[in-house]
Write a structure and sequence with these properties.
Number of strands: 16
Largest sheet: 8 strands, mixed
Number of domains: 2
Strand content: 15-25%
CATH class of the largest domain: Alpha Beta
CATH topology of the largest domain: BirA Bifunctional Protein, domain 2
Oligomer: single chain
CATH architecture of the largest domain: 2-Layer Sandwich
Structural class: alpha+beta
CATH superfamily of the largest domain: Bira Bifunctional Protein, Domain 2
Shape: elongated
Number of helices: 12
Bound molecules: 4-amino-1,4-dioxobutan-2-aminium adenosine-5'-monophosphate, magnesium ion
Length: 454
């Protein structure tokens, strides 16, 4: 029976002497003439499994045909490993070559730069780094579902094609079947202008106002022309939306969620996180422990501006009440001033989206951004405007099309309720948890301006 490498390496000594079959890709091969070592990986764990074949075995001649990157199946016996790096190894009885590799296999060396690996995204998961990211990402997604399911949030699905620009930032990808874009959108497939969604929030609100607590986990698309280490044109967003809740509840849920993710990484992905601690960010494990243990700082936008003004730091973008916080400001607050995640609330209403609830000061809205060291914003959310009249006014003030938002206003007409929610940029979360600096390295195949290969 085929066993995954993780099963074998995690087993106890009862496995010694058992006959097993393992399948995987060759990482290294060393021919010592009287015997040969093959290390193989199958993606299940960071460690490779070492297998040994004796030259007296008839199968030994096959060693010559095996090179790095080949896929093979091995039948053999589990024995205790004399080496100190692994508990068990396999004494090979039989080798089956499934797919040979070639001399130009791009992953011959032990280490490769992130830049180079981006040019071979289709092979990236075969490296230690690519495998570790893939496993951590998988685990964070699995446990995100668990976090919300345990709290009775329902997982809902929202459309990818939409007519509304939720965030009003104008960075939309148009969806059309028209050959000539100068034609009237009424002649288009949907008889109006449509786009790829930037967020599932508005649709999620409809379900929160009926099912109480829901969440979306979906791709989101933004045609932002920015070549930064934290922007993608296609990324994944996790968006809880819940009713009978205000901004305070929102801050609490988002903080609990981020802490939970840090704990998941340490508990469930110990080996991969230790690898990141060693090769990507020294002190990562300590940082994640700190995230779990210390409460997040919660400050108002107004206080954040005061801190930035007092910092005497030369920023590229001016610090002024009413201006949006730039990533350099966000990073100063979380990285240098508070040295931990910071929740900034109550932003000026001019710089935030139309759906956010007005505060009683008349100047700010019940917004919430979570800022973390090195990255800046990883979560954006708000309490939503639940008054029909105020929301209608806001839609008009932002010069949005009332017709498009008629259904959204209906939610305030039939049994309106205070409700709130937030969006987690999932790749930024993976960056935060792994310490990996560039967002392009934490998603299997990345999409950014000028890049849609693979
Ligand atoms: O702050 P944003 O724009 O908020 C919303 O879209 C709300 N509708 C969410 C909600 O309340 N349900 O985006 C949310 C998060 C950001 O904090 C950021 O982490 C991430 O999405 N994000 C991006 N991640 C990668 N690439 C991009 N281009 C991103 N734009 C936003
Ligand atoms: Mg935002």
């Amino acid at each position: 029976m085929r066993l995954k490498i993780k099963k074998i390496l995690k087993a106890d000594d009862k496995i010694i002497g058992k006959k097993v079959k393992i399948c995987g890709w060759v990482k290294t091969i060393r021919d010592q003439k009287s015997f040969a070592f093959i290390e193989i990986s199958d993606g299940s764990t960071l460690s490779n499994l070492q297998a040994i074949i004796d030259s007296t075995n008839d199968e030994y001649r096959k060693i010559l045909e095996i090179s790095i990157g080949a896929s093979i199946a091995i039948d053999g016996e589990v024995v205790k490993s004399p080496g100190k790096n692994q508990k068990y190894e396999i004494k090979i009885d039989k080798i089956q070559i499934i797919g040979t590799s070639q001399e130009d296999y791009p992953l011959q060396k032990k280490r490769h730069s992130f830049e180079y690996l981006r040019t071979i995204s289709h092979l990236r998961c075969r490296t230690n780094m690519g495998g570790a990211v893939t496993r951590v990402r998988n685990s964070l997604i699995y446990h995100s579902h668990k976090f919300f399911q345990d709290r009775d949030f329902l997982y809902i699905q929202t459309p990818i094609i939409t007519a509304s620009d939720t965030e009003g930032a104008g960075d939309l990808f148009r969806v059309t079947t028209l050959e000539d874009l100068r034609k009237d959108p009424k002649e288009d497939f949907f008889k109006k202008k449509t786009f790829l969604t930037v967020s599932g929030q508005l649709n999620a609100e409809a379900f929160a106002c009926g099912m109480s607590d829901v969440y979306v986990f979906s791709p989101a698309f933004r045609a932002e022309n920015s070549h930064t280490s934290r922007h993608l044109a296609e990324f994944w967003m996790l968006e809880p939306e819940f009713a009978f809740a205000d901004l305070k509840d929102n801050v609490a849920l988002a903080s609990d969620y981020i802490k939970y993710m840090a704990k998941v990484a340490l508990d469930e992905n110990e080996e991969d996180i230790a690898f990141f601690d060693k090769f990507i960010e020294k002190g990562l494990i300590e940082r994640l422990k700190h995230v779990i243990e210390s409460p997040f700082e919660v400050i108002t936008y107004t206080d954040a501006i005061k801190i930035l003004e007092k910092s005497n730091k030369k920023f590229q973008y001016p610090v002024k009440w009413g201006n949006d916080l730039q990533s350099e400001h966000e990073r100063y607050l979380s990285e240098e001033h508070f040295k931990k995640p910071v929740v900034v609330i109550d932003y000026p209403k001019e710089i935030k989206a139309f759906y956010m609830k007005d505060n009683s000061d008349g100047k700010t809205v019940a917004a919430m951004d979570i800022l973390v060291p090195k990255i800046g914003e990883i979560v954006g959310g708000a309490q939503r405007e639940d008054s029909y009249d105020l929301l209608k006014k806001k839609i008009e003030m932002k010069k949005l099309d009332l017709d498009t938002y008629k259904w959204y206003l209906d939610l305030r007409k039939y049994g309106t309720v205070p409700h709130a929610g937030f969006g987690v940029g999932f790749e930024r979360l993976v960056q935060f948890i792994t310490g990996i600096e560039n967002i392009r390295d934490v998603i299997p195949f990345y999409r950014a301006t000028g890049i849609a290969d693979f």
